[in-house]
Design a protein that fits this description.
By secondary structure, this protein is of the alpha+beta class. The chain is built from 2 helices and 2 strands; from the N terminus they run αββα. Strands 1-2 form a two-stranded antiparallel sheet. The longest helix has 11 residues. The protein starts with 11 loop residues before the first helix and ends in a 16-residue tail after the last helix.
């Protein structure tokens, strides 16, 4: 199975080490992922906020399978 999902132009499934599709997990601290690097969800939040589209941040996403 290959999951293909993006949020605000970010490829969440490939950029999040835990493949979190509906927001950040509890393992983020000070903007950093407990697994690897900066949390992609902070980047998504910042982009959506700058574009006045924060309502998209709370949208529930169902994985699409390609």
């Amino acid at each position: 199975m290959v999951f293909k999902d993006s949020v605000a132009g970010f490829d969440v499934v490939n950029e999040c080490p835990k493949k979190m599709l509906n927001g950040p997990c509890g393992g983020m601290k000070n903007g950093m992922c407990e697994v690897k690097g900066p949390c992609i969800w902070l980047k998504i939040y910042a982009k959506l906020k700058s574009e006045d589209r924060l309502s998209e941040f709370t949208k529930v996403r169902i994985p699409t399978i390609k």
